[in-house]
Structures are given as C-alpha cells and as structure tokens.
Amino acid sequence: MLDPVSSLLAAVDLTDTGARTNEDIFTGTTEWSPRGRLFGGQVLAQSITAAMRTVDDDRIVHSMHGYFLRPGAIDVPITFAVDRIHDGRSFSTRRTQAYQDGQPILSMIASFQVSDDGLDHQIEMPSVPQPEDLPSAADVLGGIDHPVAQFWATRRAFDMRHAPSPVYLQVEGEQVAHQAVWFKALQPMPDDPNLHRAALAYASDYTILESILRRHGVAWVTPGLKMASLDHAMWWHRFARVDDWLLYVQESPSASGGRGLSMGRIYDREGRLIASVAQEGMVRVPAP
C-alpha cells in the first residue's frame, strides 16, 4: 500500500486518453477509504488537475465552483471530461465533469487567469496557538482501535491540528460556530505549483463543515450522524506550498433545513491569505 502522500500524488497523476471530440478526456485512480466512499477532496483535486491540463502554462487557476452529484465509489475508475468553454486574452474557463460507470459524480467550472498586477489587500490572520503546541490527529486517535479512527490518524496525507481542540470524540469548551486547523502534507511534495494548488483543494474538504458540528456540540462519533458535501467553491489568491504549515480558519454563518454552510480562509505562516473556501453540506443529527 502506498503511503498517504504517494497515494494523493498517484490520484492526481491523471492519464490523458488522447481522445479529442468536443472534450478532453482523462482517467484517474481512486484512493481507499474505510467506508467505501470516495473522499470529495480527491475528486475536486483531480477535476482541477484535468482542467489545468487544457490551459496554457501561464494561466493559473483562481476559482472553482463544483457540485457533488452522487457519492463516488473507491473501486471504480473515474473519467474526467473537460469542456474548453472559453479562452480570452486574460482568462480561460473550463468545465470538468467526473464520471463513474457513465454517471456524473461531480460537475465543476474553473477559471484561469494570466498573472497580473492590481490592488492588494486582505483580511488579517487571527492569532491562534502554533501547530507545534497542538496535538495531531495521530496523537488524538492513534490509540483507538477503530478503522475510521486509524485511517484518520495514519492514512490521510495531511497532518491536521485543531485550535482549540478537535471534534472527533467530543466537543470541548464553548459551543461556537468557528474554529481553526493547522495542516501540512506529511512529506515534501514536488515543486510543481499546479500540484500544490490541486492539493490545497484536496485538503480544503477535510474539516470545512466542522464549525457546524462545534456550534451544536456534535462530535464526529455521534451515533446516526450523517454528513455529505453538496457543493464546494474555492478562490486561490496567492501561492503557497502545502508541505509548509497553513492555517485554515473556518466559521459557519448558518445551518437550517438539514443543511449547513461553512466559510474558510487559508493563510500561510507569514499571515498571507492564500485561499478562500465555501461549502454547503447535508448535516443530519438524530433527534434526542
């Protein structure tokens, strides 16, 4: 079995089938998970990578908007069809559809831009404990004899450290609709900037809905809890490597009707705002 980072790299190393009809066709492998369902961040990263393969090297992804249409399976290859919607003087637009067994599981539109100068400002990074002062998922879950706990502790490609504390087993302290998570790849990654952008999308799906759980005192181990990502939007502002520590600041402005919305901001350790994220998810908690 590949180590977690090698597994991520293998998943985003898509095969170009050479097919050229109205779309560019790529194929990709899947990563194992203990529940048999694909991790949404993997399909996001692969779909972005497929779109990147169809634009000039000087055009950098700056935004994507995707809908998760069906659960993906870990034992079925994925086909990615990229529609070259538009190429302008500065911007290019691509639509990627991900399929398993002929059925779409993700539909995404991404935009790319030639590097340009312009106005520059950002929301400042909040002050939180440093990652060296926080326990990792392996520290919290490593001693628990459960397949999901062991997978989260040892088989994910990123070291993740919650501030103030994780919500895996319980929700400690005040029930607030915000949290922060430090994360970085467990091993050094290749220098390809597009790979780091795709991997950032991959990691952005891990914890984004947890601010909803924290607000209501619901831990991941709550019996009967059902959660699923419905859509995902991301904006890349500045470049950063995912094998350096990044801070993911998350908050949920609303939850209702069995759905919750979460917003996120990703900073590097120097306080530069790297990306912004938004996701709505299905969140169903059994009645007491």
Automatic annotation (TrEMBL):
Pfam families: 4HBT_3 (PF13622), Acyl_CoA_thio (PF02551). SUPFAM superfamilies: Thioesterase/thiol ester dehydrase-isomerase. One of its GO terms (biological process) is fatty acid catabolic process. Keywords: Hydrolase, Lipid metabolism. Transmembrane segments: none annotated. It catalyses: a fatty acyl-CoA + H2O = a fatty acid + CoA + H(+). The keyword Mitochondrion does not apply. Residues 31-113 form the Acyl-CoA thioesterase-like N-terminal HotDog domain. Residues 165-282 form the Acyl-CoA thioesterase 2 C-terminal domain. One of its GO terms (molecular function) is fatty acyl-CoA hydrolase activity. The keyword Lipid metabolism applies. Homotetramer. Belongs to the C/M/P thioester hydrolase family. This is Acyl-CoA thioesterase 2. The lineage of its organism: Bacteria, Bacillati, Actinomycetota, Actinomycetes, Micrococcales.
